[in-house]
Predict the structure of Levansucrase.
Amino acid sequence: MDTTATEPVQAYLTATGERLRADGCEVTTEDWRGTPVLIGYRGDFRFRWMATTLHLFTIAAPTTVVTADALRAFTATVMDYVVARKGQLRGFQSGVAAIPALVGTQVDPAASAWAQEGQQVKFASVARPVAVDAGTGAAAAYRGNPMLGIVYAAHLRSKLNAYFPAA
């Protein structure tokens, strides 16, 4: 993955960081193998979620071209990261969710299609990948109601829409 951040990509990532902060997320930037990655975190507790806490990580990285393979690999890396950070007790009154986003100046249609297919699920953890075209602001992602994790669906959709609004 080419991680050269063009001006539109950097502007989109900066605006995403502002949206995350405005929603009450802790926002940091970490170096992932030479790539600055934007990380937003928030934990929310709801009785209607069967009295669980959902740990939500929104992680966005720059690229030039968002491909399906790159988005799959990034999503897997993000899931490993969030499970290592907050997933030790998942399933026991605790869940982990991630919104992994690759932001580029071009998006391969296969990447958009894969992102919109559905959320990625592991035990008590889900990810909703996003393919972002920084030039147009288009953000392809699954915004539906899945069978697994339906209790969190409205919350995840609202956060996805707030952080990566559809253009």
User: Anything to note?
Assistant: Strands lie at 26-32, 35-46, 52-62, 65-66, 94-104, 106-107, 120-122, 125-127, 130-133, 139-141. The chain has a mean pLDDT of 86. The two ends are 24 Å apart (CA to CA). The chain is about 35% helix and 35% strand.
